[in-house]
Specification:
The chain is of the alpha+beta class and about 160 residues long. It has three helices and seven strands.
Length: about 160
Amino acid sequence: MTEFVLGSYRLEVDVEATRAWYGRYGNATGGCGCAYCRNYAAAVGVLPPEAAAFLEPLGLNLRRPGDIGDYGPRQGGRWYMPMWHIAGRLLEAGEGELPVAPGVTAGFATDMGPFLRNFPEPCFQCWLSVTLPWVLEEPADEAADDRDDEVKTLDRRTES
């Protein structure tokens, strides 16, 4: 386990177990084919390099979140909150969001789902809040999915 202090958060992370799980199961869309997840995968490269650099020491890859939430239009783009599970413990829960880069904030929690199948325990979650441009040819307003006006997520516990 490696200990990290990030702002007011203190983490104990099993970096190798985290990295191994995402190496086996993770990909940029979590297997979801909706337009919002496909747009995240296509547009995430526009984020400042500090976003990826923040995640990498924790065993995480910006392009391979465990879950992607799309929260609609914001500031000329789409508001996304990708989330990753981390093997280890959240020793001290900080307050507020951590600034990571211009337009990118992060936080950690112990109660954010969906919970991922075969993920090592104990675990906690890391999320980013980002705005990405809509880069797909299909308009975001017409992007077909099964959202029912709820955030689009994927629960890998149901995968076979």
